[in-house]
């Protein structure tokens, strides 16, 4: 996510951000272009989909990605040539929501197996976990932006941050792989079962780690963690409507100070792809700490983990510390 001014809801921002995709040239360095190998060629829209494809496909798949690690994912331009290249793949794995350019490119690609992760679990609207701090004018902008970017229903796409919902998607992906490449169906099924076990263990770790804490409230730069908060009985307070490069208003600082004291909040979380200026300013003025809570939109050299499981485990440790886990 970049540092442009954003006075729209956290859900609208982050849904577009999480699903914003890069270019088809941004393929995995160890993979050949889609359609040019003797393996099952899969194009994944962004990292959480790439991870599933690699974990379930194993040695039988060649995975290329549309999003370059560390790239600001909201901006997207796909040429006709790139769309045509996508058509050479055996399958495309994506999460259809708030990126019309991606959805259109996939629809035009001619790929036989199109796997929409949004159909493999239930998306929800987490707008009620945020608090609107901008008044009537700000609320109107929320509605206008959500309608223009996300259609009538701005559903939260960040399902991969809930290990249970992510496992549901993984199960559906595996079934699609089995159907599209039946020669390796047994291996896909076994790989999916192994991944399901890892995700179940991760879910248990989160449940146990966050069961008893001093507070259940945490502050984030943007509202990527609605599913995670709902799953583990937490409350996400997203600091939306603020330009990451500007100073927060005195009124907002005062409000956050009051919330922090009332709810025992200790930490303002930011993420690796976003400027930490706002979080650090808020933290300094409100007497809070800062730490990273990674929405896992991509793995970079700044990520606190080498893959999905590693970063999710780091996120758990950060939450345990911030919430005062017993």
Report on the structure:
This protein has 326 residues and is α/β, with parallel strands linked by helices. The N terminus is likely disordered. The strands form two sheets. It has a four-stranded parallel sheet, with helices on one face. A four-stranded parallel sheet has the order 6-5-7-8, with helices on both faces. The longest helix has 25 residues.
Quick structural summary:
The protein has 326 residues and is α/β, with parallel strands linked by helices.
Q: Strand sequence of the main sheet, in spatial order?
A: 2-1-3-4
Tell me the helix content: 40-55%
Please tally the β strands and state the result.
Answer: 8
Sheet-strand content, in percent, reads 5-15%
- Strand/helix succession: HEHEHEHEHHHEHEHEHEH
Q: Tell the overall outline.
A: globular
Rg, Cα atoms, Å: 20 Å
Q: Largest sheet, described in full?
A: 4 strands, parallel
Uncertain spans, ≥5 residues at pLDDT below 50?
A: 1-31, 128-153
* CA(first)-CA(last) distance: 33 Å
Structural category is alpha/beta
Q: What's the average pLDDT?
A: 78
Number of helices: 11
Features:
4-stranded parallel β-sheet, 326 residues, 8 strands, globular, 10% strand, disordered N terminus, alpha/beta
